[in-house]
Amino acid sequence: MTRTSDKPSKKINDNKMTSSIRDRSQIVIILGIYILMILFFFILKPNYLSYDNIMTILLATCVNGLLALGVSFVIFTGGIDISVGTVMTFSSVMSGIALNNWGLPLPLVILFGFLVGAFCGAVNGFGVAKMYLPPFIATMAMQMITKGLSLVVSGIKPIYFTAAPGYQNIATGYFLGIPGFYNAIVILLVIAVIAYIIFSKTIIGRFALAIGSNEEATRLSGVKTDNWKIAIYSLCGLFAGFAGLIMSSRLNSAQPQLGAGYELEAIAAAVIGGNSLNGGEGSITGTILGALIISSLTNGLRIMSVPTELQSAIVGLVLALAVYFDKRRRINE
Amino acid sequence: MKKRILALLLIVSILAFVVGCQQASQDQPSQETPQKPAEEPAQEPAEEPAQEPSSDEKPYVAMIALGYGHQFWQAVRQGAENAAEEFGVRITFEGPEEETMVDKQLDMLNTALSNNPAAIALAAIDVEAVTPILKDAKSKGIRVVGFDSGCGDEAESHCSTDNLQAAALAAENAARLLEGKGKIGIVGHSQTVIDAVQRVDGFVEKIKNEYPDIEIVDIQYGDGDHLKSAEVTKGMLQAHPDIDLIYTSNEGACVGAYNGLKEAGKLNEVILVGFDSSAAMKEAIRNGEIAGAITQDPVGMGYKTVEAAVKLIKGEKVEEFIDTGCYWYDASNMDEDHIAPLLYD
Amino acid sequence: MDSKVLEMRNISKSFPGVKALDDVSFDLKAGEVHALVGENGAGKSTLMKVLAGIYSKDSGAILINGNEVKIESVRDAQRLGIVMIHQELNLMNHLTVAENIFIGREYKKKFPLFLDAGKQIKKTREIFSELNIDIDPTVKVGKLTVAKQQMVEIAKALSYDSKILIMDEPTASLTDSEIEDLFRIVRTLKEEGRSIIYISHRLEELKIISDRITVMRDGRYIDTVKTEEADIDDVIKMMVGREIFVKKQEPFKNEDAPVALKVENLSAGRMVKNVSFHVRKGEILGFAGLMGAGRTEVARAIFAAENYESGDIYINGRKVKIKTPNDAVKAGIAYLSEDRRRYGLALGMNVDENISMANMKKFSKLLFIDFKKSFTNSQMQREKLDIRTPSLKQRTKFLSGGNQQKVVLAKWLTRDSEIIIFDEPTRGIDVGAKNEIYKLLNNLAQQGKAIIVISSELPEIIRTCHRVLVMCEGRITGELIGDEIDQNTIMQYAIKRDINNGRLSS
């Protein structure tokens, strides 16, 4: 009896081994490239790895990292969300309105910002799933809508959070009073872990991949793919709301004209992290690594006083190389 | 069908919601500044000629700006209206909601011209596109004045801030704050927009020519994006920990640098000099965290533009270029009468 | 001695974890049809993909007319006169026949960039007349039947002046008369001195069309025999290494079993007209007919994969409304599509994930996946259905057709579906695995599941079904029970067109 029951469980362990090795190879490659890059900068500029600068890099990763996490889920489904940047701005503008005009208490203000983000995401999802708009078009519409609404609602002026003392500390306060260790970094970390759990432990992640892998087969398995798509786009919007909180907290204001361009950096992070834009595969760890690579790279280039115009070109080159190596790995597979 | 109705309802409710918000934000007194007129829909000026046909003894000056919603343009409008009252002319003031909408601006220009103005004042988005229209207008005897970005060679007079001069003024003040010696980093906001380039060039020229003991160690650009500018500033500090002063070329760069310094804990060590204004900048300047900044004089720009137009209509001689001026402001003078109206939130 | 146009010597090829080809040799003579047979996963396709420049070999040599050549890309192969016609045709549906044939090397006019469409159409006509095919070169490929599309593929291959054609399962989706046409073309090609490598599971066909048969198994070369001297049974034995048991389906004993699914007056589009039928628990109901008779469309309409216009569906006597596949699944209906790769599996996902797909509610709590539960179930299904995979974490794209089919079946068995619709259950599946699938069908029926089998292979229908419905042009034209089920009768009904209707519409 014991022998027969032992056998399958042993098999399960074997199986786990093989899969994690496969998934890990990709992460290891990206991690290797990342470490090489860090060493490169460290040798040229030793203060690149100073405590202060590491924290600077991590803080700089927060907004893009959160956006990239959200957009990753959409990318897993084979979709795309180019509205995350402006949805982020819109959610922070609405938070500002909730604080200054409606006088809501701070926790509600923050929650409201998240809800606005999630709502925008849900509308994206509705457009994609129920109105059959291509994701690019649906989210481009949302990008324009939120961009416009942010300007209209704010009256094209920054909205300040000075009415809520301590708002700025949400992002730039020190965690447990450790100097330089910003709360935002902890928030990113916690949310990244949550994203990881959602991705690998819940049916949201499972269905995101299933839809990306073969939407029709998933639908024909009786899965309500439409509803799941709405849920996944909402999740992406929610993450944009998180990013909006960090952004507005760092600036202690909502800047209505910001946001455009952030979506591309977020998508770039997801792609550098090895996530295929075709959907059906990918990893949250990769996305976070991708976001770290972008912020570490730009920081390093800045420290070396590389002209701004060249910085952009170099990031573009890294993006192209990342995708190239990923493609090669896939072909070999 | 049901779904379509649902979608429609959704859109309508969002719009209703937003309009509600907007009104709410206008009611908010703390967001208002005394010199800023209440917001008006951009279409309204077009209707004005019809409203007052009886008063057409007054010469009509049509002003078309690069943008409309930004406070800068509203301040220009304020100055223009002051001048209109003083010189007894009627003006309309329009501008597209974004500073890239060439076609909208062309529509506005054509509409304005069809109302037979005595003069047209224009800050063109695309000079090439407006040149033939302006030529045509001039042939009908309409006088043409450029302001801010101007409108090319067709302008009989051009009223704008001399950004090179303004940047030099910033450099003078920076040198004064450094007592003639130290290291400067620059956070710019664009490498392509001519105004932005001049704000950096003018600064660099002045320092190089007149202050040999001051060194400019780094120039980086943050697109005027607050967050990016903060990261740029922090990177710069990491690369050059001995920077004494940071000069920034617009509001986004300045507030970004301010946040960067704050996050790096260097607000007290590094002097910050800015450009333009906002509520955040004003507050930081008032409590000394930002040493000071340059502001343009949009009210003066509006005033001088109308003044030039009136002179042209009367056939008087007008200078080809009119500097509409700029000011250095800091904690000591920002509440003075000639400065306060130029600063916006 | 016959001249060898092609020789492949000691070819080996490995994929991560799999030795796909192990020291395989193969040769081809001028004007010969050389059949390549073997179970799925035997390495035939891999060998041919090496030849066609899709895969690169690890070791070995390829000789064309006695000279060693390098084939590193499809272009290289084309230059050497080798073209592969894939099972899944690679045509652009939106382009015309002529455009498809000359895609990538369009005739240009003297003035650059302008296409010479006239010349292209003329050339296409020439090739068609050579093959005695009647297809309009200006028609969009998407409007052609699969058989005609295949002929376009052949014409395309000839337009490269190919000396060696590789045909992968060319008859898989053709009707008998279409197969006749194909064979006629193959013979024409032979007479012209071209050589053909013919991959097929249909051994009866090989007897008719091929000159020699090479058998592969498990990535190895087994033997080559002359067709005229070969005994099909021997070939099968070489393929599977074991005897195959053939038997007609026994009559359905439980005539009084409750009706599991009843469909009344179902109509959907042009392909399903007023279809009514029922299937009892424990019964295997067959849907026979020619290609395009509307059988798949009936299944898809019941499953709500496509909308149906009218009709009532009763499950266990209760009328149900099925508007989405989700409703169908909830009602206990499972649908195993003829096109597993498109409609059945998420190929990038692993075996476990696919098996659990239709049943995530059971395998999760508050959105969190119960991995152990799902894994245990998948493991059980794997053993029960004998799914051969190195691991439950193996991605399904690396499984053979038969094992893929079993994964899809496992998905539905996990869901406890009571009504299971198999659409071409053994398409692309090798002989040995076919028998396993048939055994599974019987087992499921004995467990009381209502089974519907849609198949274009008459032997399959005869072998598996208790009762057969024959469709023609969207209507059910006949019902056969027990002894009535035989190939001739089915064919009679399958071509029984509705004369009245025909008159009215013409």
Characterization of this structure:
The complex is a heterotrimer of chains A (333), B (345) and C (506). Helix content of chain A is 76%, strand content 1%. By secondary structure, chain A is mostly helical. Chain A has one domain: ABC transporter involved in vitamin B12 uptake, BtuC, CATH 1.10.3470. Chain A has a two-stranded antiparallel sheet. Mean pLDDT of chain A is 88; it is low at 1-22. Chain B is of the alpha/beta class and 345 residues long. Chain B is built from eleven helices and twelve strands. In chain B, helix 3 runs parallel beside helix 11, helix 4 runs parallel beside helix 5 and helix 8 (226-239) packs across helix 9. The longest helix of chain B is centred in the N-terminal third of the chain and has 26 residues, at 2-27. Mean pLDDT of chain B is 83; it is low at 23-55. Chain C folds into three domains: 4-240, P-loop containing nucleotide triphosphate hydrolases (Rossmann fold), CATH 3.40.50.300; 259-332 and 418-430 and 449-506, Rossmann fold; 339-417, no CATH class. With 506 residues, chain C is α/β, with parallel strands linked by helices. Mean pLDDT of chain C is 85; it is low at 499-506. Chains in contact: A-B, A-C. At the A-B interface, helix 2, helix 3, helix 5, helix 9 and helix 11 of A face helix 1, strand 7, helix 8, helix 9 and helix 10 of B.
Could you give a quick summary of the protein structure above?
The complex is a heterotrimer of chains A (333), B (345) and C (506). By secondary structure, chain B is an alpha/beta fold. Chain B has helices at 2-27, 44-51, 71-87, 102-114, 127-139, 163-178, 194-210, 226-239, 251-264, 279-286, 298-313; strands spanning 60-64, 90-94, 119-122, 143-147, 157-160, 182-188, 214-221, 245-248, 271-275, 292-296, 321-323, 326-329.
Write a concise keyword list for the protein shown above.
heterotrimer; A: about 325 residues; mainly alpha; ABC transporter involved in vitamin B12 uptake, BtuC; 12 helices; 2 strands; disordered N terminus; B: Rossmann fold; six-stranded parallel sheet; six-stranded mixed sheet; about 15% strand; elongated
Write the layout of secondary structure elements.
The complex is a heterotrimer of chains A (333), B (345) and C (506).
Chain A: H1 2-44, H2 51-76, H3 84-100, H4 106-129, H5 135-154, E1 159-160, H6 169-172, H7 183-201, H8 203-220, H9 225-251, E2 253-254, H10 262-272, H11 284-303, H12 308-332
Antiparallel strand pairs in A: 1-2
Helix pairs in contact in A: 1-11, 2-7, 2-8, 2-9, 2-10, 2-11, 3-4, 3-5, 3-9, 4-5, 4-9, 7-8, 8-9, 10-11, 10-12, 11-12
Chain B: H1 2-27, H2 44-51, E1 60-64, H3 71-87, E2 90-94, H4 102-114, E3 119-122, H5 127-139, E4 143-147, E5 157-160, H6 163-178, E6 182-188, H7 194-210, E7 214-221, H8 226-239, E8 245-248, H9 251-264, E9 271-275, H10 279-286, E10 292-296, H11 298-313, E11 321-323, E12 326-329
Parallel strand pairs in B: 1-2, 1-3, 3-4, 4-5, 5-11, 6-7, 6-8, 8-9, 9-10
Antiparallel strand pairs in B: 10-12
Helix pairs in contact in B: 3-11, 4-5, 6-7, 8-9
Chain C: E1 4-15, E2 18-29, E3 33-37, H1 44-51, E4 59-64, E5 67-69, H2 74-79, E6 82-85, H3 97-101, H4 117-131, H5 146-159, E7 164-168, H6 176-191, E8 195-199, H7 203-209, E9 212-217, E10 220-226, H8 232-240, E11 259-268, E12 272-280, E13 284-289, H9 295-302, E14 310-315, E15 318-320, H10 325-330, E16 333-336, H11 340-344, H12 351-356, E17 364-365, E18 368-369, H13 371-385, H14 401-414, E19 419-423, H15 431-446, E20 450-454, H16 458-464, E21 467-472, E22 475-481, H17 487-494, H18 499-505
